[in-house]
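During the reporting period the student researcher (J.K.) took over the structure-prediction task from the postdoctoral fellow and processed the backlog of single-chain submissions. One of the processed entries is reproduced below for the supervisory committee.
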Amino acid sequence: MRIDLEALERDCEMTFLVAGGPGGQHRNRSATGVRLKHLPTGLAVTATERRSQMANRRAAFERLRAKLEALLHKPAPRVATKPSGAVRRRRLEAKRRKAQRKSQRRKAEPDE
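J.K. obtained the following structure tokens:
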């Protein structure tokens, strides 16, 4: 399921912040970081890794979209299955053979 960008923009509160870190004076003095809060769900994401506010905005929307899609994903229900009778018989036969082999390895106890 793909979430539409316009609807996402309407449902979000966007704030800009000073990102800081490597990237020079432009990044340290201007509000290039973007924080998005999805109001219906309360999910929040932040993007501060780029020097451009627009690039950070795109990255934040992509992260928010991915989080929302993961939240909405419903896994397919699992169907319980049972092994067939033939499989059960083969498994028991293999166990019997192994037990027989192990019992033959034991030392014979001396008769009194």
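The committee noted the following: The helical segments are 5-10, 25-29, 53-72, 85-105.
J.K. will present the remaining backlog at the next meeting.
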